[in-house]
Write the structure tokens for this entry.
Amino acid sequence: MTDHTTAFGADAAAVSSVAMEGATNYFRWQLEVMSSHIGPRVLEIGCGVGEFTRVLLGRERVVSVDLKSDMIEHVRERMAGHAEWYGLVADVTDPSLADQAEVHRCTSVTAINVIEHIEDDEAILAAIRRLLPTGGTAAVLVPAHAALYGTLDEAAGHYRRYTKSEIARKVEAAGFRVDRTMYFNAVGAIGWYVNYRILRIRSVNEGTKAQVGVFDKLIVPVARMAERFVEPPFGISAVCLATAV
């Protein structure tokens, strides 16, 4: 298997994707909680190394957009044989992106662990709104709680972490009706705090990869079931589901 930490060098945006690489149950769980706002023709903003892209497959069309050509090329290799996938190297804030035929046909947008990488988060949310028709839907997931901001946030180039009310307010200001907000993955928040606030681990290593493997196989199925019935008061992520108005 390719060492993506090496392959993508110091690319901060790749760090958080690599941290959860191979955690298929986890990404399916993310998809489950956002599925009401992810339609058959979806535009994926910031595909990273393609972990969430994999669970989007099977739809009519999945269009992935990333600023980095090496990311798109890597995902293109992973998506070989999947005719429903299309990749674009582009800046989401470029007004001409909406004129691309593949983008124009999309009626849903996902932005999974993307907004926190952008200094002007309000600008990218406004750009996402411009890419959608009225009535189109958006699923936004961001890191939650400033108190969790740690060494891997720094390494990944995160400008901030959010409360669910903060991300909802910014999404609404961009031209959306917020349909639902929630915190996601409370157990993961505890592990993150220990690893990156207390132990101050500064990179993805074999130890953290092993933790992710155990978490994905043993803990995610239980946590997924629990959070279906009881919405947690905190989490590693904040989710905002919205409709363009």
User: Anything to note?
Assistant: Strands lie at 41-45, 61-66, 85-89, 108-112, 137-143, 176-184, 237-244.
